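Now for one record:
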Amino acid sequence: MRMTSETYFTPNVTVKFNNYKMICLFSIKYSDSKAELLQRLRVAIANSDGSLSGNTLSGSFTGKTLFGTFKGRYTIDGVITVIIDEKPFSIGCGSIEREVTKYLESVQQQ
């Protein structure tokens, strides 16, 4: 099987196809301190039957939904850059970006 790599850009989300696997990439602004945000995310994700490992610079996470499992990575450097490495096929990158943004906003308001 031949490996392929193509990248498509939408206004907020980059969708990359690598060897027939869709990878989502997007960035989100945040207002809390890195440590505070990370601690709130760690608790919220654990309460949702997921996991988050890493530090205030980078890490990885998993999550479960009714549609399947998500796996991804993050970096924090002025903005939070999220890379979704695995996701249910039926859920688009734009939908994921909207839900992650809402999730981060709700965690920051706690």
